[in-house]
Every structure is written in C-alpha cells, then in structure tokens.
Specification:
- It contains 7 helices and 9 strands; from the N terminus they run βαβαβαββαβββαβαα.
- The chain is an alpha/beta fold.
- The chain folds into 2 domains: 201 residues, Spore Coat Polysaccharide Biosynthesis Protein SpsA, Chain A, CATH 3.90.550.10; 53 residues.
- Strands 1, 2, 3, 4, 5, 6, 7, 8 and 9 form a 9-stranded mixed beta sheet that branches.
- Helix 5 runs parallel beside helix 6 and helix 6 runs antiparallel to helix 7.
- It starts with a strand and ends with a helix.
C-alpha cells in the first residue's frame, strides 16, 4: 500500500457480500494513490458479511477502514447515506461490494475534480460483465465532458461505482427508496444547477448487469417505478414541466417494454 493519500472517503454498502467484499476492498487498496478512508456499511446482512468485514480490517492500517453496522436492512441508498454521514473527507466516492476499481481510478478522477473546483459530481465509463477489460493509458489525461441536465433524462448515464462527488452537496439518496435511488440523486444534482462531468475512461469493472441478470419481471417493474418516481420528483420540485414529465415517462415505459422483451428472449433461448 502506498503511503500517500488523497482527501477521499470511499463508501461501500455491504449486504450478503461475504464472498465479494474482500475483492472490492483490495481494489481500493491497490489504487495508485490511496483514499484517506473507507467506510463499510453493513446493511444488516444475515450471512457472514459482518464477520468477514471485521476480519478484513485487520489486514489494513488501523483506522483506515471504518465499519457501520446497521440494525435493520434499509437498502443500498440509505446505507450509503449512513456511510456518507460519518465520512470526514471533502470528496466521496462510491463503490459496490461486488465491483472493483482499476488502480488509476481515484488518482485520475480526483485530479480532474481538484482541477475543476466548479464541478460537484463526476462519473466515468466502466467495463460490464463479459466485456473485454480495457486499461487506461495513465500517460494521457482522459477526455472530459460537461453533462447538461437534459442529457440525464434519457437514461441513467452514471453507474454508482463510477461516481465521485463533493461531500458538501446538500442532497442525499432517498431514504427508504430501494430502486432507482441513485438515478434520482444524480437527477436532483444535475437539475439543482450543480455542474456534472463525465470522464471518458473505463476506470471500474462491474460484476453485474444493470437489469435482468437474475431477473424476475417484478424486480424490473420495481426498477421502472423507481425511474418514473425520479421524473415525478423533478416535476414536484418544478425542475421539469408537466409536458416534459409526460414525455419522459412514456420514453421510460418504452425502454421498459424493450427490456422485458430482451429478458424474455434470453430466457427462452438460453434454456
């Protein structure tokens, strides 16, 4: 482990992840420049997750990993809020317990945000399951793009393990919201007038698809409801008009129908 650190708190919600959390933390420990701290939030797991976490922290310097054991299962969004609440660094980076970062992730993303103090949140590309891993050329600074709020409406462009934001942002994940809570927060940030950047470099590797992997239709519908609620929240806060709300809800439902069709085909032909 490198001795140099950057002012970043890494927040990882943990639920039934005893088989993967060690891999996730190892990818943080393998960063070219380490974050100041990791906050692991156990979301009342019923397996050996908490036991594994306590054994895991013994492998790293004292105090580098903080543990927040929740007494009730509250969902990933609320678990992230719990970790965010005790994070003491100016920047927050999110990682999921079954995903990993490439070693250059924190160094590049922090450097970009540090050099652009006007940016409240940034995200980057990632590698999905079964895709060919693409490593970043660290000798070149990746391309960055300012994201307009309207660009966020067509789809959730930001996977949570790619997001870094400023701790001072006065917005949080919706408490108790279990589906679409990340997209809802990204929209709230973008439409609040805060500046958002996209970094065109794959700096994380995800080990699950965004939808339909384990896939019950009921879960897909819950995810769809979460997206519709995110649009509705924007309308309630007068960030988008009623006409825009109707348009994007119809657009979302069309995407949902397409997902159901694709998942149904996969189940039919992969048996």
């Amino acid at each position: 482990m490198s001795l140099s650190t950057i002012p970043v708190s890494v927040v990882i919600p943990c639920y039934q992840c005893s088989d993967t959390i060690e891999r996730a933390v190892a990818s943080v420990a393998a960063q070219s420049i380490l974050p100041n701290e990791i906050v692991l939030v156990d979301d009342c797991s019923q397996d050996a997750t908490l036991e594994v976490i306590y054994q895991l922290i013994k492998q790293y310097p004292s105090g580098w990993i903080k543990v927040v054991p929740l007494k009730a299962n509250v969902g990933a969004g609320s678990a992230r809020n719990a970790g965010w609440a005790i994070a003491n660094q100016p920047y927050i980076a999110f990682l999921d317990a079954d995903d990993v970062w490439y070693p250059e992730k924190l160094s590049l993303q922090y450097t970009i945000m540090h050099n652009h103090p006007e940016v409240a949140m940034s995200a980057h590309a990632c590698v999905w399951p079964n895709a060919i891993s693409i490593r970043v050329d660290v000798s070149k600074m990746p391309k960055i793009k300012k994201i307009k709020p309207v660009e966020m409406l067509s789809k959730n462009r930001f996977s949570t393990p790619t997001v870094m934001l400023r701790n001072e942002i006065p917005l949080r994940f919706g408490d108790g919201k279990r589906y679409g809570e990340d997209y809802d927060l990204w929209l709230q940030i973008a439409f609040s007038g805060l500046i958002v950047f996209y970094i065109d470099a794959p700096l994380a590797e995800l080990h699950k698809m965004p939808y339909g992997e384990a896939g019950l239709s009921a879960k897909l519908w819950a995810m769809e409801q979460g997206e519709l609620e995110a649009y509705l929240n924007l309308h309630h806060k007068k960030k988008i008009s009623l006409t825009a709300l109707g348009f994007w809800c119809v657009w979302s439902l069309i995407k949902f129908a397409r997902r159901i069709f694709i998942v149904t085909l996969k189940r039919t032909f992969c048996r």
